[in-house]
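Retry 2 of 3 after timeout on previous attempt. Resubmitting structure tokens to design endpoint.
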């Protein structure tokens, strides 16, 4: 009998009960010999450098030259310097610069090409002008593995055209609780479908093992992620704990990994999350015992963004435990210098055995050699990069994406046969998603959160409105765009496009599945048009199932369009008849996720209890079906509150249950019960003013007449844990207007975490340089407050502004976010190892 491996808290792992596998690539004697010869020449410093991946925002080509780093990545908000929205030539130039640095032997180092990885998760979504495919939750509805394979091929070609040869995709998660903010990255709640797609997409990205196409110049390295259980965390919390049995972990959450390994995937990324209390980045039983030894994975095991820092006893800059658990490369975006220094010391001291180092470096070099990196030359000389203008966003690529849109649409309701629509009629297109390419793409689109964008950022793309307008015009009909639903001529039918705003990762976590709780703007629009006697077709943009029974009832037809990507005309292809009255494209999509009966029903868990969801897995009407759903229940099952996580102060008022507190220069504090108000010593005053509406902002005036500092602070009703937000590139964003500040202003913005706990950032000098009287979103990275001493896991005062200088500012909003007009710099720190 095999003795079970034991994880850190006594959770048993039984590797012999997991699928037994092996790499589809038998050992290549020539490659293995080259690896041994190269490693014999490598110093310990060379080897440790190979085991670290740094982000391009925090590392330079000179750093790669000096530290011999094995890899760099471009995170969601990381771009070529000075290029917030880069084109192919800019990515190529940066990739070339890092490659040259890694191959430079002038300082005595060995020439080992650096790997460059990026999150190309729905096409090459960090590249302006690229083909953007529907997000994965949409692709699950197509039930078309060949389409998924083809999407992988196109994504690989556009990556290569930009000089990049590694994507952090596919995501093989199997979301069981779609309150999770990453649910749209999962193809389905069904592990069998995810397993089927895993092989298809890996084959598309990398080519078929054993053929000349495998990892040739037209393919890229794929990454299966996130091993394992990220879609099963308790309450759908991102980076949370999957409290499930080993059987469920294996059969549900790991379903895609054996097929991906069999298809030749070269990298597996380990999850931020935990399994029954044990952080995956430190779980040797699963990483080494199961993934490497039992399942036969012989490529690179990669950590996620500073995830190793969450392993008990570790920090972002110090984590021997992760390497010893079996991770070969740690993703240390902004912490790589400290990690390099500490890892080197741990290897020399034997804390990390040399055998573990040699195994990791062997795997890293094996993947680089399989990719042909030592012979490929500059990334910009790749044949696809040379002709990038003909490759990126090409007509054939966009045609494939448009087909994916058509196949992914799911029809939930078609009362009275409103669909398909005669394009010769007068059609109103309404809703804030109608002409919004950013919204129809969602997160991981040009920026991490997919926010702060306009249609101008998407050359070659087509909004839903533009696609409808083109076909209606060609058929001889007329179309009118009106976001708020007002029209000049009464329409024969209205198409209302609405849905989720873009988000990524934990920014999208929800407490329940209510759509826009407390905000009935879209529901009111549907009801208004229908009340005017206009037939209404609802087109819902979403990354996941949500409770929208009221919106479905308010529409004559309801279409789930998911997050369709750049080719919005695919929606028009299905909604409209041809000019001669035919149906060119019927509805094809079937739900890959069940939809909830109320806002608190979690369909997967409910099904296990024998409860019926509103729309079951596999549901999807066609034009031949009777499409009247009847009246759906409108009891949400929960009070629909407008409270929103990460919003502390909005439209001049504190968020629900938050308190505004003023503390005078004399140290005496008071809660603000009414406006205007002032501290008893007169050192700080608060009053109302108008920004976009009546009294939707607050003016703060410091008298500066005292030697002490006066401050305003927002006090939370309970401690907040923003540790994971801090680990990402999240900002504390304040929408403010500087009215009066002196060049020597002493203002600080801080975060408090209990008595004697907090971190303050000096902002006076930077704010004094801002234009006076102009409203701006000013962001401060959360990590600035952490580095200044705040414990980000127990924040009770998420915003403090303190000053003993005279000055005046106006504030309307304070929240967490990733987009700002000005991002202030953290205080400088010595970071030379």
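Retry 2 succeeded. Sequence:
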């Amino acid at each position: 009998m095999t003795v079970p491996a034991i994880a850190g808290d006594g959770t048993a792992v039984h590797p012999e009960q997991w699928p037994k596998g092996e790499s589809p690539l038998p050992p290549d004697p020539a490659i293995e010999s080259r690896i041994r010869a190269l490693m014999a020449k490598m110093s310990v410093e060379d080897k440790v450098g190979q085991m670290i991946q740094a982000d391009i925002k925090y590392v330079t080509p000179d750093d790669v030259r000096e530290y011999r780093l094995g890899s760099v990545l471009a995170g969601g908000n990381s771009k070529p310097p000075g290029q917030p929205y880069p084109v192919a030539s800019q990515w190529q130039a940066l990739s070339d610069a890092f490659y040259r640095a890694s191959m430079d032997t002038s300082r005595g180092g060995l020439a080992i090409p650096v790997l460059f990885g990026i999150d190309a998760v729905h096409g090459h979504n960090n590249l302006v002008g690229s083909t953007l495919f529907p997000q994965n939750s949409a692709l699950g509805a197509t039930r078309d593995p060949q389409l998924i394979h083809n999407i992988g091929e196109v994504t690989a070609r556009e990556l290569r055209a930009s000089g990049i040869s590694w994507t952090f995709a596919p995501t093989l998660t199997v979301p069981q609780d779609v309150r999770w903010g990453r649910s749209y990255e999962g193809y389905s709640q069904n592990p069998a479908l995810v397993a089927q797609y895993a092989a298809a997409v890996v084959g598309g990205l990398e080519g078929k093992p054993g053929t000349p196409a495998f990892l040739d110049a037209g393919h890229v390295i794929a990454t299966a992620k996130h091993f394992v259980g990220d879609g099963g965390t308790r309450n759908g919390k991102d980076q949370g704990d999957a409290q499930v049995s080993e059987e469920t972990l294996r059969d549900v959450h790991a379903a895609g990994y054996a097929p991906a390994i069999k298809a030749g995937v070269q990298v597996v990324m380990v999850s931020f999350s935990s399994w029954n209390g044990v952080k995956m980045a430190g779980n040797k039983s699963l990483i080494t015992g199961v993934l490497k030894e039992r399942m036969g994975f012989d490529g690179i095991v990669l950590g996620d963004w500073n995830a190793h820092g969450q392993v008990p006893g570790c920090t972002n800059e110090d984590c021997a435990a992760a390497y010893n658990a079996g991770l070969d490369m740690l993703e240390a975006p902004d912490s790589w210098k400290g990690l390099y220094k500490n890892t080197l010391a741990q290897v020399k001291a034997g804390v990390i055995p040399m055998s573990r180092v040699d195994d990791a470096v062997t795997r890293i070099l094996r993947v680089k050699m399989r990719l042909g990196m030592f012979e490929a030359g500059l990334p910009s000389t790749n044949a696809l990069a040379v002709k990038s203008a003909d490759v990126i966003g090409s007509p054939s690529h966009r045609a494939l994406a448009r087909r994916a849109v058509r196949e992914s649409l799911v029809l939930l309701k078609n009362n009275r046969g409103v669909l398909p629509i005669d394009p010769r009629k007068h059609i109103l297109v309404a809703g804030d998603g109608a002409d919004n390419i950013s919204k129809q793409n969602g997160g991981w689109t040009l920026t991490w959160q997919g926010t702060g964008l306009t249609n101008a950022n998407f050359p070659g793309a087509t909004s839903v409105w533009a696609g409808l307008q083109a076909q209606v015009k060609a058929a001889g009909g007329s179309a009118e765009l009106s976001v708020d639903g007002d029209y000049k001529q009464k329409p024969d039918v209205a198409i209302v496009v609405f849905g989720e705003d873009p988000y990524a990762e934990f920014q999208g976590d929800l407490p329940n599945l209510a759509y826009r709780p407390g905000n009935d703007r879209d529901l009111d629009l549907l009801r208004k048009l229908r009340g005017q006697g206009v037939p209404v077709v609802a087109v819902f943009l979403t990354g996941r199932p949500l409770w929208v029974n009221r919106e479905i009832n308010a529409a004559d037809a309801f279409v789930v369009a998911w997050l369709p990507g750049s080719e919005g005309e695919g929606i028009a292809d299905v909604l409209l008849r041809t000019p001669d009255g035919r149906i060119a494209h019927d509805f094809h999509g079937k739900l890959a996720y069940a939809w909830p009966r109320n806002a608190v029903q979690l369909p997967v868990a409910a099904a296990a209890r024998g409860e019926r969801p509103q729309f079951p897995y596999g549901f999807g009407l066609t034009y031949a079906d009777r499409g009247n759903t009847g009246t759906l229940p409108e009891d949400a099952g929960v009070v629909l509150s407008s409270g929103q996580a990460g919003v502390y102060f909005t439209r001049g008022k504190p968020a629900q249950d938050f308190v505004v507190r003023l503390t005078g220069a004399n140290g005496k504090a008071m809660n603000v019960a009414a406006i205007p108000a002032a501290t008893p010593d007169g050192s700080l005053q608060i009053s109302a003013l108008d920004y976009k509406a009546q009294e939707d902002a607050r003016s703060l005036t410091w008298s500066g007449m005292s030697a002490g500092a006066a401050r305003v602070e927002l006090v939370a009703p309970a401690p907040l844990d923003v540790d994971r937000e801090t680990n990402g590139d999240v900002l504390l964003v304040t929408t403010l207007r500087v009215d009066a500040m002196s060049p020597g202003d002493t203002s600080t913005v801080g975060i408090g975490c209990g008595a004697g706990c907090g971190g303050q950032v000096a902002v006076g000098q930077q704010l004094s340089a801002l234009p006076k009287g102009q409203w701006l979103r000013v962001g401060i990275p959360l990590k600035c407050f952490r580095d200044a001493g705040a414990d980000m896991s127990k924040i009770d005062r998420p915003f403090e502004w303190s000053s003993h200088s005279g000055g005046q500012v106006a504030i309307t909003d304070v929240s967490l976010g990733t987009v700002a007009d000005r991002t202030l710099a953290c205080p400088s720190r010595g970071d030379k190892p």
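Attempt log closed. The first helix runs from residue 29 to 41.
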